[in-house]
Amino acid sequence: MVSDADPQWLAEACAARMWATDAASMALGMSIVRVTPGTATLTMTVRDDMVNGHGICHGGLISALADSAFAFACNSHGTVTVAAGFEVDFLAPAALGDRLVAEARELVLRGRSGVYDVVVRRDEEVVAVFRGRSRSLGRPVLEDS
Amino acid sequence: MVSDADPQWLAEACAARMWATDAASMALGMSIVRVTPGTATLTMTVRDDMVNGHGICHGGLISALADSAFAFACNSHGTVTVAAGFEVDFLAPAALGDRLVAEARELVLRGRSGVYDVVVRRDEEVVAVFRGRSRSLGRPVLEDS
Amino acid sequence: MVSDADPQWLAEACAARMWATDAASMALGMSIVRVTPGTATLTMTVRDDMVNGHGICHGGLISALADSAFAFACNSHGTVTVAAGFEVDFLAPAALGDRLVAEARELVLRGRSGVYDVVVRRDEEVVAVFRGRSRSLGRPVLEDS
Amino acid sequence: MVSDADPQWLAEACAARMWATDAASMALGMSIVRVTPGTATLTMTVRDDMVNGHGICHGGLISALADSAFAFACNSHGTVTVAAGFEVDFLAPAALGDRLVAEARELVLRGRSGVYDVVVRRDEEVVAVFRGRSRSLGRPVLEDS
């Protein structure tokens, strides 16, 4: 039963289950660095098919990286949880070849609602800050099959 | 001179110039339906490499579509303008094969700052609403070369 | 029964019921201009106890006006509905004596969730734009007593 | 000169200067607990003129408390800085008599733009989370006179 599971084991098992079918994150070349209960760290390197008309990484794709980190963090407790929405601020542009690291952490959980913060960095520089609102659907990520 | 240009001609010329180098929007299979001064309508069909671990379109990619529509709308007046950030709310999931349409329109411009609203629909249903904050950089999209 | 009520009658009856106990909106000197199903227009004049350390109307109070307009709009259908959160952008400062007008309108309703847009103006100028997220609690505003 | 000032002295001097004319925060019964470079903690107790039509503290006034904490934090470095906008999520209602504490901290500064997080609590419970976007105007808070 999920409720008896070790929290770290559960976080990693949920991430593995989600990752296996997360075609979008894979297609964008993301990889998971670390998942713990309530947190997730993912990376993505800016490819030449991620650059926009201003010659910098498309903001929507920086957001997609942050959104994936948010998704792994908010599903880490074992309950299927989806994004209700998010807010993102772009602080610095990212260029072709930059390796971006997104760190998501749980800020607050209350009932079925949660708020998660994600910071996207290139080395030490903050590229974007993201705040996601989550909504739990109540069913387990690891369903008995 | 840009300031003498017909606004509709300028909007379309800026879109063409931006689109030519917007590898990210092209790689995501987007296409431009229409651009006018302060507005842009783009479409994207959900492919199998856009689906996430919950079997629905990755929210970050819905946001990327909205963000592209926002970008074409806020650059339509001829001045290079970038996203400072945005807020998005997901109202309904999008599935594999869904054709999404994002309509962006200018809400307010004041000095170098602007606010744009984007609605993403599948047929008549609203999938997401997006509000973008823009910042003009002051130089022309169509530079003499 | 509420479900048989005329929508306009219901919107006005809900507003009257809410206003009677809305000490906060009254204390800030707000007044209701008009309420219809899904919309509300309120006004507030900037008093000397609403000015901040920069000599302009406190942004939190501009937000409070927008939030009240949002509340009357999202409760206009007869079901108790609360704010889950909001996003606001300040476009122009408001000064002592300015009469602010906030117009709220429903953007989308889906299940218990809704999104409402509010524009705050002084004459024709946009002072702030606000986007509110609502959550219905499911019980009637006009309870039989 | 401001640039030579001790950062903690400067933060307190700016807060004192701003507070002296911040009629709005005073009228709402706020008080400053502590200001340091990049942070500020303020409190406000929910009065009977702060309650809305649902019998709980008006969300706009919770936001006003957070916005004041944000203002003192983002002006603490000595440069006049205003709110460009903010995002707030309400996690729990606040009732008449509740003493709310808002803690603001700087998340990131880049050029004239900054992002600040504020958490509003009643005892240990999180009532609201707030993310503010600031814009520096470039002139000193403590002008020679």
Oligomeric status: homotetramer
Q: Unreliable runs of chain A, pLDDT <50, ≥5 residues?
A: none
Fourth-level CATH superfamily of chain A: Hotdog Thioesterase
Which range does the strand content of chain A fall in?
35-45%
Strand order of the largest sheet of chain A: 1-2-4-5-6-3
Write the CATH fold name of chain A.
Answer: Thiol Ester Dehydrase, Chain A
* Largest sheet entry of chain A: 6 strands, antiparallel
Number of strands of chain A: 6
Radius of gyration of chain A: 15 Å
Brief summary of the model shown:
Chain A has 145 residues and is an alpha+beta fold. In chain A, 25% of the residues lie in helices and 43% in strands. Chain A has a single domain, classed as Hotdog Thioesterase (Thiol Ester Dehydrase, Chain A).
Overview of the structural elements:
The structure is a homotetramer of 145-residue chains. Chain A is α+β, with helices and mostly antiparallel strands and 145 residues long. Chain A is built from three helices and six strands; from the N terminus they run ααββαββββ. Chain A has a six-stranded antiparallel sheet with strand order 1-2-4-5-6-3. The mean pLDDT of chain A is 94. Chains in contact: A-B, A-C, A-D, B-C, B-D, C-D. At the A-B interface, helix 1, helix 2, helix 3 and strand 3 of A face helix 1, helix 2, helix 3 and strand 3 of B. Strand 3 (79-90) of chain C pairs antiparallel with strand 3 (79-90) of chain D, so a sheet runs across the interface.
